[in-house]
Amino acid sequence: MSDNTYGKLFRVTSWGESHGEAIGCVIDGCPPGILLTEAMIQAALDRRRPGSSKFVTQRQEADKVKILSGVFEDDRTDGPRTTGTPISLLIENTDQRSKDYSDIRDLYRPGHADFTYDAKYGLRDYRGGGRASARETAMRVAAGAVAWQVLTHLYGSDISITGALIQMGTKKIDPARANRTHLNDNPFFCPDPAAAQDWEAYLDQIRKNGSSVGGLVEIIAHGFPAGLGAPTAGKLDAELAQALMSINAAKAVEIGAGLEAASLTGEENADEIRMGPDGPEFLSNKAGGILGGISTGQDIIARIAIKPTSSILTPRKTISREGEEREIITKGRHDPCVAIRAVPVAEAMMALVLADQALRHRGQCG
Prior knowledge:
Blueprint (H helix, E strand, L loop, with lengths): L4 E2 L4 E6 L5 E7 L9 H11 L16 E5 L1 E2 L8 E2 L4 E6 L21 H8 L15 H19 L4 E9 L2 E2 L20 H16 L6 E8 L13 H10 L4 E6 L10 H4 L3 E4 L2 E4 L7 E2 L2 E2 L4 E7 L9 E4 L5 E4 L10 H27 L1
Antiparallel strand pairs: 1-2, 2-3, 3-7, 4-7, 5-6, 8-9, 8-10, 10-16, 11-16, 12-13, 14-15, 17-18
Helix pairs in contact: 1-3, 1-7, 3-7, 5-7
């Protein structure tokens, strides 16, 4: 299986399966001299960790990360620092329940990658989806934490990357009430406290019904300079779109105004510019902080539509590997709204792209 690597200079290769012994990644291209501890990575992983509330999968994985290589500490440093060599990260799988999947080993689950894996490779790991499982995203979050250390090393502590769930099913936040200081006050990474309270009863009923629902995740990168990206093959928005679309269950990505831009006039869509005390200032941000594939210095804004979890208890029509028509119920421990745990994954993918682009920019422009 090819195509397990993200990035050009800051490169991340992930490995492992949902029900294997462990999952891991190798990060190549991280600059030397950056403070990096397991605790820094663990803090990011704990936000994505399964079993953290009744609204996510109850698979009980501690997701304890180990740094196997790429850092060194001696009495001349204030902690372990990156050496510039490949950083290898490992997370052991400790709560696999492969027996949950034994009844469906020869059935294709609707909405999953079972059929396409078989069509491409001629075999598949039916235990939780193997490489297609959202379990793989733990390593993206771990690598994203390393990317974040690179970004703060380059740009200081005033930058931020924050993701939020702004819609669950048909229920949306009220932008007038939204405040991202509330993101960690509820189990949904929701910036609207009133909406989060409403979502609890809504999702609890969906969960009890054995069903699932989708959601819309918004990620905002604040404080990054103008100039990241390139006008053709290295467009910042194109690489962001590819990275975000690679997240499990992602079905659409938009930058800035996104799909709304199709209904705007030129006057409405153009982000006018004036001269401010510290340089150019844009009067709006329909472009989502990116023009011609290059960052403008405004907030970089992206949104991802996440589909409902395909594993549900409602019988669905399917076929077996032999072509026999069957009905299937997917048992096991699944997220009633996988968009919740997609929030820290989306933040990580934004960090990976920006770290890669920042190092490429530094390499070309100094």
